[in-house]
Specification:
Elements lengths: L8 H21 L8 H20 L6 H15 L6 H12 L18 H29 L1 H61 L13 E2 L2 H6 L6 H6 L8 H8 L8 E2 L2 H10 L38 H7 L2
Parallel strand pairs: 1-2
Helix pairs in contact: 1-2, 1-6, 2-3, 2-6, 3-6, 5-6
This protein binds zinc ion (ZN).
Length: 325
């Protein structure tokens, strides 16, 4: 149906082509709702982040051109060209899983876990992920023109869409109200999408054991909340089989769950955040503690050196496809 590889992606398409444009449109027409609709906008921003992650692991459409267009469309609501996931996440994070060599390690400048480190993690991590993105862009430009064209299309969509939406807001509502409408109704959810994806990566790996087959990730296992975020909470299963479609993660999670440490099966992300960052201010028992072996502590049997150098990215057709499987 609609050229979808998985029927369950009808839910994704409703988000991408109905909710993502509709909610800003309502605010452009009824600017008094801007602010009130921000929580919904942030939720949709988070969803946009998850959907871009899923699209890079398991493309939504059978048709390659449709996927190229769809990736460019999603980039608008992610606030950044979504190819960025490939060199930083698919080819890098999934390989190293928070061990040395991962551009997105949670322990780069501090091995502690508290709110300050969690919310500023974005700024640290994006600096190192940015190096891989730059290398990927330059390599794609030199060696893989088809890939490079797809990337350029994503940049064009982001710049044209945000430029047009900013202009439209000012034309409709003047400078002051227009800046509020574009900023809060359209830009902030997109910026939040990016920040939130870094944040969730942080809380899904901090104090976990990347040397373990089952305890490398923290999972959030609420049924309803996972329905709302395309099963983004089932992270151990996702790392086990990165190319598995999001709708099939529960089956794999149920197989893994008996082996996963109880601390790494949190009911709700909000409960975890409240306990760790608010109650944790008052008592150590609410904070996280290292489960098993720390990422920076390779077992003697491991041949891995504790080397934080980032390995090269791969822009060949085979390399890109392999990282999406
Ligand atoms: Zn992933």
């Amino acid at each position: 149906m609609l050229g979808l590889r998985e029927k369950s992606d009808l839910q994704t398409l409703v988000y991408a082509f109905v909710l993502f444009p509709l909610v800003p449109a309502v605010q452009y027409l009824r600017p008094e709702l801007v602010g009130w609709l921000l929580p919904l906008g942030l939720y949709l921003g988070f969803s946009a982040g998850v959907i871009t992650h899923n699209q890079n692991h398991c493309p939504t459409f059978e048709n390659k051109r449709l996927n190229t267009f769809y990736s460019a469309w999603l980039s608008i609501f992610y606030g950044y060209p979504i190819f960025g996931w490939i060199p930083t996440h698919n080819q890098n994070h999934h390989k190293f899983v928070n061990r040395a060599g991962d551009a997105s390690i949670t322990w780069r400048y501090s091995k502690k876990h508290n709110w300050t480190i969690a919310w500023t993690y974005f700024f640290v991590s994006q600096h190192f992920q940015g190096k891989l993105i730059k290398e990927y862009l330059l390599k794609a430009k030199a060696k893989n023109p088809a890939l490079f064209r797809g990337i350029l299309l994503q940049y064009v969509f982001v710049l044209v869409a945000h430029g047009s939406m900013a202009t439209l807001a000012v034309v409709l509502h003047g400078w002051k109200l227009g800046a509020w409408v574009y900023g809060v109704g359209f830009l902030v959810p997109a910026l939040f999408a990016l920040w939130a994806m870094f944040f969730i990566n942080y809380i899904q790996h901090v104090d976990c054991d990347p040397w373990s087959e089952y305890n490398h990730s923290r999972n959030f296992v609420g049924r309803a909340s996972n329905w709302l975020v395309f099963n983004a909470g089932l992270h151990a299963a996702h790392h086990k089989q990165a190319g598995l479609h999001w709708s099939k993660l529960w089956t794999l999670h149920d197989e893994l769950a008996p082996h996963i440490h109880p601390e790494l099966k949190q009911g709700s992300m909000w409960g975890f955040i409240l306990r760790t960052y608010v109650l944790g201010l008052f008592s150590d028992r609410f904070r996280t503690h290292q489960v098993g072996r720390a990422a920076w502590d390779p077992p003697e049997s491991s041949s891995e050196a504790l080397d934080l150098t980032l390995p090269p990215v791969d822009t060949t057709e085979a390399g890109v496809n392999a990282s999406m499987a």
